[in-house]
Structures are given as structure tokens and as C-alpha cells.
Amino acid sequence: MTGWLEGDVALVTGGGSGIGRAVALRFLREGAAGVAVFGRDLDRLRTVAEAAGHDASRLLPVPGDVRSVDDLQEAVATTVARFGRLDVLVPNAGIWDFNRSISGTTPQEISAIYDELFDINVKGYLLTVSVAWPELVKTRGSIVMTLSNAAFYPAGGGPVYTAAKHAARGLVTQLAYELAPKVRVNGVAIGGLRTDLRGPASAGLAGRSIEQSFARREGTGPNMWLPLHDASTDPDDSTGPYVLLASRREAGVITGAVLNADGGIGVRGFATAAGGDDL
Ligand SMILES: NC(=O)c1ccc[n+]([C@@H]2O[C@H](COP(=O)([O-])OP(=O)(O)OC[C@H]3O[C@@H](n4cnc5c(N)ncnc54)[C@H](O)[C@@H]3O)[C@@H](O)[C@H]2O)c1
Q1: 14: Cβ–Cβ under 8 A, 6 or more apart, which residues?
Q2: Is there a domain that residue 279 lies in?
Q3: Given this model, what pLDDT does residue 230 score?
Q4: Three-class SS of residue 118?
């Protein structure tokens, strides 16, 4: 069977774990000729190659930090040197603010969280596109950014994370405008998933993961209830929209769009798992 991304080459930032890892492995299964996974921890990136099994030769681990222009330039150059081209860019590397609210933080803490989180989640996306767009123009390729329910709704994080994801949504709109008609730019707004998503080291939140937070909140109320799934869903279940948007054949007329792939957060209304009709 022919995959949806047959022969394409992709670069996924934050590809060592969670959604980025799942997207990288899915792209390989869709026939990608090569997928580079970029992240801070080389050992972790190597485990993605191991998970790729007999496709490991098409998986390229590239260590680096999305805050470093040099690292990103090196990653694009290495990817093109190895696979000959770049068709799909997935800016995805990110951190979370652990729902730190305006009333629950000091101004000093907000300042530290903002600087580190915006540097990675917003400037990191911008720099990733900044170094890669010339290669994408050559292939008439596309960009698929990882957004979040927090790009649309409150309570997916604190004010810093929510503002950062709204900013990334703005990048989709602006970059789709600037790079048309040669490069399509879209986003996938995924919902809460149990991943290794960490917080800013500057606020002492690098040692915890969102997975631990979800585990602690489990069963404590309707907030965790989504119409279609809960946070324990395998990240692989959220990779379909990335494949669709990356596909020239299937999404050649789509740019500037964001697919809400969050399990239906926006339509849950006041229903709760306990109180809703049993269909
Ligand atoms: N997990 C969720 O509930 C959820 C919900 C909505 C959106 N998201 C978004 O999904 C994306 C992926 O997160 P995830 O949930 O898979 O978490 P994750 O921690 O498993 O993946 C993020 C990856 O980015 C890497 N990373 C972090 N900072 C980096 C930096 N400065 N340079 C390079 N790599 C860096 C991490 O090492 C990690 O491998 C993020 O943009 C996140 O905001 C996650």
C-alpha cells in the first residue's frame, strides 16, 4: 500500500518524545524517505531510531536546542545532506507552565517562566521556520506546527502557555500569508496527552512532567473529561492530522488552517462523564 508521504523528507523538532516522536514514526510508516528528529537529548533521539526498527536507516537523530540558530542551521544542513531535500517541517518542541496562574505566581516567577517558555515555544518555532523555509521553497513543501487546545481556550495552561500557543497560532496565519504560494503552513491543535512535557528550568519546573500532573488529578472532577478521549490516549492517535496536512496530494489547497485534534474540548459544554446521557 502506498503511504501518504511517499518519498518526502521531514524534520521534526522535539522529536525525541511524545507527539514529536509519534509523528516522526508515523511519517516513516507513511513512506517518508527520511525523517530527522531534533532535540536536546541525543540518547533519547536514538531511542526513536531503535523504535523505527527496520526503518531505522531513514531516521536521523540530530541533537540541538531550538533556541540556537547555529543548531537549527546545522540540523537543516545535515538533513538535506543526508536525504537530499526537505519537504515537511514540524515545529513541535515545547515546554509547559504547569497551569501557573497570575494570582498564584510572583511577578519574578512570571517573568522567568515567560522568558524561557516564549524563547522555546514561540521564538523556537520562528527560528525553526527562519532557517528552513528556503529548502521548503525548493520542494514546494509545507510546515505543520504543533499547537494546543491552549491556542483557543483557557485552562490548558496558565497565562504564559496560553499566550504562547495563541502566538504560535498567529505564526501559522502570518507565515501562511508570507510563504504562499510556495510553502503551505498549517497547525494541529492537540489536546491534553500524557507525555513527558516539562516546565521551565528557571522556575524549578524542569523536573516534573505533565504526565505526573495528569496522574495526580485523575478522577478529581469533570475537567479531565473530553468527549472523545482522555489524557491516556497514545500520542500516535493524534498523528493523522499531521499526515493529512503534510500531504501535497490530500491538502494541496489547505494553508493557514488549524485542525482542532483535541478530543472535542470545544464542544464539551457543561456535560460531565458522570452526568451526561448514557448513549
Ligand atoms: N502533552 C500535552 O498535553 C500537550 C497538549 C497540547 C499541546 N502540546 C504541545 O505538543 C508539543 C510536544 O509536546 P509533548 O506533549 O509531546 O511533550 P514532550 O516533552 O514529550 O515533547 C517535547 C519535546 O521537546 C523537546 N524540547 C524541549 N525544549 C527544547 C529545546 N529548547 N530545544 C529542543 N528540544 C526541546 C523535549 O526534550 C521533548 O523531547 C509541545 O509544543 C506542546 O506544547 C502538548
Answers
A1: 20, 38, 39, 66, 92, 93, 94, 146
A2: no
A3: 76
A4: helix
**Number of domains present in the structure of the chain:** 1
270 within domain boundaries: no
Tens digit of each residue's pLDDT (9 = 90 or more) over 56-107: 999 999 999 999 999 999 999 999 999 999 999 999 999 999 999 999 999 9
Q: What is the pLDDT of residues 181-203, one digit of tens each?
A: 999 999 999 998 999 999 999 99
Whether the Cβ atoms of residue 12 and residue 36 lie closer than 8 Å to each other:
yes
Identify whether 161 is a catalytic site residue.
yes
Query: Considering the domain boundaries, does residue 250 fall inside one?
Result: yes
Q: What one-letter code names the amino acid at 191? A: G
CA–CA dist 124, 121 (Å, integer): 6
Q: Is residue 273 one of the residues assigned to a domain?
A: no
Place of cell 509547559: 96
* Close Cβ partners of 216 (under 8 Å, ≥ 6 residues apart): none
Closest-lying ligand 1 atom to the alpha carbon of residue 197: 19
Mean pLDDT by 10 residues, the chain (279 residues): 94 98 98 98 98 97 98 98 98 97 97 98 99 98 98 96 98 98 98 93 93 76 67 90 98 98 85 55
Catalytic residue, candidates 114, 125, 161, 242? 161
User: How far is Cα 56 from Cα 199, in angstroms, rounded to an integer?
Assistant: 30
Letter string b/e over residues 92-114, b meaning 16 or more CB atoms within 10 A of that residue's CB: bbbbbbbbbeeeebeeebbebbb
Domain containing residue 83: 9-263
The binding-site residues of ligand 1, defined as CB within 6 angstroms of any ligand atom, are 14, 16-20, 39-41, 65-67, 92-95, 120, 146, 148, 190-193, 195-198, 210
- Give me the CATH number covering residue 152: 3.40.50.720
